[in-house]
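Dissemination and training. As part of the outreach component of the grant, students in the summer workshop were shown how a complex can be specified as a set of sequence lines and then modelled as a single object. The example used during the hands-on session is reproduced here so that future cohorts can follow it. Participants entered these lines:
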Amino acid sequence: MASITIDNVQKAFGKVIAVDQLNLDIKDGEFFTFLGPSGCGKTTTLRMIAGFYYPTKGVVRFNEKDMTRVPPEKRNTGMVFQNYALFPHMTVFENVAFGLKVRKVSSTEIKARVENILSKVRLDQYADRQVSQLSGGQQQRVALARALVIEPEILLLDEPLSNLDAKLRDEMREEILRLKNEFGITTIYVTHDQAEALSMSDRIAVFNFGVCHQVGTPLEIYNEPANDFVARFIGEINLLPVTIKKTDDRHIYAEVSFGPEKKELLVHNDPFNHKPGHDGPLSISIRPEAIKILLKPEEGANILSGKIEEVQFFGSHLYMEINIGGQLLKANVLNNVRTTTLEEGDDIYVQLPENLLRIIPNVSGDAS
Amino acid sequence: MIKNRDTRFTILLLIPVLLVLVAYVLYPSIRTLLESLKQDGSFTISNYHEFFSQESRTNLQALWNSVYISLLSVLLSALIGIPLAFIFNRYDFPGRSFFSTAAIMPIVLPSLVGVMAFMFLYGESGLVPNAIKDLFGLEKVPFKIGGISGILIVHAYTMYVYFYMTVSSAINKIDPSLEEAAYNLGANRFKVFWKVTFPLLTPAIVAASLLVFMISMASFSAPFLLAGGFRVLSLQIYFSKINGDMEIAATQSVILSVVSISFLLFMRWYQNRKDYRMASKGIGAHRSEVSNPVLKWLLVCVGVIGVIILLLPHFTILLLSLVPDGTWTWQTYPTVFNTENYRLLFEDPNIFKPLRNSLVMSVIATAGNLVFGVLASYVLVKRRFVGKNFVDILVMIPWALPATVIGMNLVFAFNEPSVFSFGQILVGTFWILPLAYFVRHIPLVVRSTNAVLEQLDDSIEEASRSLGAKWFYTFRRVLLPIIMPGVLSGTLLAFVESVGEFPTSVLLYTISNRPISIEIMNQLRMFNMGQAAAYGMIQIGLIALVLFISNKFFGVKAERSLS
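and obtained this result:
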C-alpha cells in the first residue's frame, strides 16, 4: 500500500500539452477517481503513474519515494486496462499466474495464490478456460484478479466498466467495491461516468483539457462544484450569468438576466454560496431538485412566476422545464399526489432558496 | 546520452534493422545507379542517352513491349478475375465453395513450372493442339502458343488470381445494407450496381491493376521460355549481363526500377487518398441462391470446365513427371509411365543435389527472414521514431523492384569486396543466392508479421510490463507466442517461394550451388521433360503443403500475403 504524490506534473506530446500543472495527493488506501470527458488528460495521468509515460516536467512519488522515471515493471502497480488486455494465448490460470511467475514465486505458492484470488472474484470454476471463452464480465474479473494477485501497492483501473452492458456494469461496480474493502489497496479509478465516480469514490479529481478543476469528496464535488465546468459535468444544473450588485453581512444582491429581463436575487453571504476572489465572469447555479415549486404566490425572497413548458414523468420524480421571462429553468419535483397534477402550460411560481443558490466562476466562457 | 530509456531501446533495436536494409537493399541499388552513370571509367549520362536514342531501337522496343504486355495482362486478368469474384461471392449454386477454392490454384504453381506446363499443353508439340489435330484429322496443329500470345496467356492464367482475391475480399466487406438502402430508395439493379457496388469496388480494382501491372513488368520466366525473338526489358537485362555489357544492364535495371517504383508510389498515394472502410460491423454473407435451374446448371458447367482448365497445368506436370527419360521421343503422346524420375531424384546424388541446394539455401535465407522480419516489424509497428516512413520504404523496395533488378543490384554490390560482405567477394560463391532469396522476401515476411502485430493491442505489452515482466521476457513469453502463427505462415511462404525462385537464381548461380529452377531449365534444354516435371512436382507439393499447414494449423489465409 502506498500514498501517491503528483507534484507539479506536466506531460506534453510534441506541441500538445495533455496534462498541465497537476498537483495531487492520494492517500494510502484511498479510492481515488479521475473523472472527466474523453481527452481530458485523466488516462495520461494514470499512465504516468503506471510508468508508461514519463512526465515532461514534475515528479511522481510513491510513499515519498521518487518514481518519476522508474520503468513500469519495477513499480509494483496492478493495472486493469479498458480492453482488459488479457493474454489471448494463455488460460485464465496462466493469465493470473503471469505476474507471479515473473516474480519467480514457487509453483506451489503460485497455485495457492491464484486459486485463492480466483475464488475471490468467483471464477474458480473457470481456471482452465481459454480467455476467449469467457464473457465480458468474466474477462473483467480475470483482469482484476491478475492485477490483484501480485499484491500491488497501487491498483490502477482504466475505465474498466466502459465495455460492459448496463446490468454487468452494476454487478462489477459492486464487485470492485467489495474487493476494495477487502484488500484496502490504494486504488485509482479512471472514468468518464459521473454516476460511477460519485457512488464509488472516496475522493474525485475532475479533469478537463489537461487541467484538474477540483479535488474533493463526491459530496463536495456535487454540492459545491468549484466552477461552471464541474457543475455542468456532474449531474444536472441551472447556470445563469450573474453580476454582483452589492454585498452586506447577510446577503449578496445578485443581478441575473432571465431573457431580456433582469431580476435581483438574494444569495446568502456564506463561503458555501460564494467564495470571493475570482475576477472573471461569474455564474449563478442551482440544482433542479433545489428549486421549490409553488402553485400560488407566497411571501418570501427569490420568488418568480413562470410557465411549465415541458413535463417528463420519471416515476420517483417529475422533471420539468419552466419558462421564466424566456429563460428555461430545469426543476425536479418528487412525486407526490399534489404535484403530479402539474401539466404543460400551467402557470406556476418558483422559489430559488437563497441558501442553495451558489455564485461560481465561469471558466468555460459559456454564457448559459 | 538520450534521456528516455524507451527511446534508447528503440534505437538499439533499430540499428540492426537499418544496417541490414542499408547494406543489402539500399547500397546495392545505389551501386547499380552509379554503374549506369559510368562509361569507360568516367561519369556521364550517355548510357541513358543511348538507351533513348533512335539508333538503339531494341531497348526502346523492349521497354514499349514490357509496358504493352503489362497493360494487356491487366486487362485480361481483370476480365477473368472480376466476374469470377462476383459469381463466386454473390451467387450460391452447387459446388460454389469448391470452385472458389480451385480459383486460386494458379498460385500453387511456381512461375517457371507454370510456364513449362503451358509449353507442354499448348505449345508447338503440345498435348492439346495435337489432340485436337488427331481428333478432327487435321493436317496441322490448329493453334499453338508462343511469343506475345504465349506470354499473355500465362500472365492471364497466373495474374487473374490477384484480381479475384482483392475484389472478392472487397465484395465481402461491402455492407449488404448499403445496397438494400439503395433499393429501398428506389434504384433498380442496374443503378445499384453502377452507382453503389462498383464505386465501392474501385479501390480494390485499381489496387489489383497496379499490382498486376508491376508483376507483369517484372515477369521473367514467361518471356524467358516463351518469347522467342520478342524482347521485353526484364529479359534484356539478363542478355546484357550474359554479354558482359554491365553498364547497359545497369542502365536497363535503373529504368525498369523507375517504372516499378513510380507505380509503387502511385499505389501508396492512391490507397491513402480514398478510404472506403465500412463503418458498420458484423457484416454477414450476402449470397443469393440461383433458383433458375437452367442458369444454375449452366453456372455449374462453366465452373467444372473452368476448374479443368485451371488444373490442367498441374495435372500435366504430374503426368510428365511419370514419363521416364528417353521413352517419349518421336511419339505424339507419352506411352510409358512409372515413378522412375522420383526414384532417380532421391537416389542419384547428381539429380538430388539441386533439390538439396535449393532446400539448404532457402532454409538459410528464410531463417534470416524470420529473425529480421520479426525485429523489423516490431520496430515499425510498436515503436515510435523519426524517419519511420523511410524505413518503411526501404522494406518495400525489394517488393517493388523486379527480381532481375535485385539480382543485378547484388551483382554490382558484391562483385568486389565491401564492408557489408566482410571484405569478401560474394558473387560466384555459395552465399550470394541465399542473400538474394533473403532480400527478395524481406517485404513478404515483414508485411505478414505487420498484419498480426497491428491486430495486437498495445495494452497487451503494457499489461505484461506492469505485472513486472521486463521487455525481453514480455517479447518472448507474450508477444512471440501470440504472433507466431501469422509470422510462420508468412515465413513458410517465403521458404517455398525461395525454393522456386528463378530470376535471381539465373543471374547469380554457380554450378556447385545450382538450385532446382536452374536444373529444370537444364533438363528442358536436354529435352528431359520427365525429370524437369518431377522437380516441378516437388515444388508444387511443397507449396500445397505450406498452404495446407497455414490454413489448418495457423488459421491464416497464407495466399493473401502474396498480393
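The CA atoms of residues 51 and 59 of chain B lie 6 Å apart. Students were then asked to discuss how this feature might be tested experimentally.
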